[in-house]
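Why do we care about 3D structure at all? Because function follows from shape, and shape follows, mostly, from sequence. That is the central idea of this module. The next example makes it concrete: a single protein chain, its amino acid sequence, and then its structure expressed as tokens.
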Amino acid sequence: MAIKWLLAGAALASVFAVAPAYAEDLIFMLDNQSSGPIVEFYASTTDTNDWEDNILTGDPIAAGGFARVTIADGKSICTYDLKIIWEGGEETEERNIDLCATGSYTVTD
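And the structure:
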């Protein structure tokens, strides 16, 4: 009987050992050290030409302000292309930004 339980435990353990690891959300601080508010913020993987949905929800990030940003795309990557839309509609794009290296991204003029 003990062998039966031991084999059942080993089988159960092997199922969990081969279960896939799920990617975690990428969380970083977006620091606006520019002279104007950020009204929209986009991040897309570097292998696509399309922008994902606007990540900012709620109020713009004021000049001198910051926000905690979560990229919940389920991917285990750190490098993204970024697009910022300023109050007034002006756009800024940055390519190949490693968001894991520092845990933050600072925007300046």
